């Protein structure tokens, strides 16, 4: 399941970055903000997974 979560986090980060860049390029402020939010959500999910990996016994 961890790989699933990591992939979902990466997908959110990429999708958010695309929306942010496109929104900025076309001057659509709401799309740009939506992209920032989605990218941040992906960053948080990735950080959560990293923390879980650090806590797991090896």
Description:
This protein has 58 residues and is mostly helical. It is 90% helix and 0% strand. The longest helix has 27 residues, at 29-55.
Question: How many helices?
Answer: 2
Span between N and C termini?
A: 17 Å
Low-confidence stretches: none
* Rg over C-alpha atoms, rounded to the nearest angstrom: 14 Å
Mean pLDDT: 93
Number of strands: 0
* Large-scale geometry: elongated
Keyword list:
mainly alpha; 58 residues; 2 helices; elongated
Chain-wise SSE layout:
Blueprint: H1 2-26, H2 29-55
In short:
90% of the residues lie in helices and 0% in strands. By secondary structure, it is mostly helical.
